[in-house]
Amino acid sequence: MANLTQLIYLVATGAFILSLKWMSDPKTARNGVFAGVGAMALAVGGTLLYPEIVAYRWIAIACVAGAIVGVPLSWVPLTAVPQRTALSHAFGGLAAGLVGTAKYYTWLGEGALTTFRMGAISAEVLLGFLTCTGSLMAAGKLQEVIPTRPLTYRNQNVINLSLLGLALVIAVRLVFRPEMSVLFPFVIVLSLLFGVLLVLPIGGADMPTVISLLNAYAGLSAVAMGFVMENKLLITAGALDGSSGLVLSIIMCKAMNRSFTNVLFGAFGQVQTAGRAIEHRTAKTATAEDAAQLLENAHSVVIIPGYGMAVAQAQHRVRDLRDELTRRGVDVKFAIHPVAGRMPGHMNVLLAEAEIPYESLIEMDDINPDMPQVDVALVIGANDVVNPAARRDPKSPIYGMPIIDADKAKTVLAIKRSMNPGFAGIENDLYFAENTLMLFGDAKAVVGQVVKELAGEQGHHESTVDSRRSSVTP
Amino acid sequence: MQLDFISGLFVFMLATFIGIEVIRRVSRLLHTPLMSLTNAISAIAIVGAIIVTGEQRTTLSTVLGAVAVFASTTNIVSGFLITDRMLKMFKKREPGK
Lengths: 474, 97
What we know:
The structure holds 2 protein chains of 2 kinds. By secondary structure, chain A is of the alpha/beta class. Chain A is built from 17 helices and 6 strands. Chain A folds into 3 domains: 1-75; 79-265, no CATH class; 288-455, TPP-binding domain (Rossmann fold). The radius of gyration of chain A is 26 Å and the shape is elongated. Chain B has a domain at 28-89. The longest helix of chain B has 31 residues, at 59-89. Chain B is flat and about 60 Å long. Classes of the chains: A alpha/beta, B mainly alpha.
């Protein structure tokens, strides 16, 4: 029986690897989900064959309850996917932490706590609980229940690291003296607290990295559980998840030209706002009508979406705009910056939801060489990812970050709610450039107006978004 | 089924390398669905949770285990469903358009 379970686990591991492999291409990706479901079913089935399992009632009740909660959680709007993802990292961490705790007290009662077991339990509990609260904080920030700006206080890095250090010291003490059970709750509390304090100072724009990192932690806590339960399947599946989180974090960090330490301890966005003289420069504004004219006379248009598009839920209007322009023979492409949005790949999912074919979604590195030939770059709710200061101002906090070269297009149209600097508090020269026209207003409303202008060409003139009309073409 | 520490580390290292190589090839288009998929996969923690719950050693371990089974099932169900929902949206250009 035990060997049968192990064989089932072996097949499940293979299926998990295939599942991730099939994600490499949108054509095979759905097979990846089926492989994953199959692997999980095998894993659960194989586990239920365990001779140690004497009662199934609570397992069944918990499974049913989990399914009842899980199904509605999969219906969230796609703009809320980052929150949902963070929430599920929290659940993953919680599960690991609880199993570790259960094992500790069970083995403590049986006097079966070996050094190896205690070490694994410590790692599992630390990682599990810090992932749990850290992810809850991230979810809160993404849902904007908690302020998205970095919340900082004096000596926060010293305090955070001492907390972690203390937790580690206690854990190590426990490894050598597992029977000192009075210490165990401290490990739990300190990890929970550290998770909160780790994520609080991290700002909303860094969420793609944080989410990826928490993804890796959730995987690693499953690995630690594998060492506790002496279970190879837990180790392999956890390692796959951990490496996925790691790869994504590295991609996100590279896309921002920042290091892990900088993201975790840098509290991005609070330093540079202070002491910066506000220059009174004026940006040129345009009306929806002007924009419509510019766009329909262009040969090629590149749309650069950012988090603002997600906030305004503008993706369907953007799709209407694309359809109108495509009908007129304009070549429309989308330029996707790796960190646009609040989680890796966020923009792609939103645009796919609006039924924009994925061949039109072009990665930053592929589209940049073509930017000087582009007639109109339409920036919708993106800011830092098109800020030319990243290329030319060594004093700028985002200097060195790869950007989409929107400024190189012949004309730039930027839709923005107001002239306030973006999340990072960095002023964007793009808006003041010679070839830039600003369209102020909510992204959804503005794009809607432009579409209306395009559709009802010769007819009525809708009230435009902004009355402050000025010179249109340079 | 015994697992010594070193074999565990071997398994861990090899799986990590496979994971990194496989994930690196995932299209950037699909990074969000990838993350929900790996969410569901990391809910493999359900294996440990089921054992802890089913063993019924102590009341405490059964209760904690059941909560862990609940949390993991939530992740499995919502993770796979939302991944599939997102992937269905990724369409190629229709030939007529």
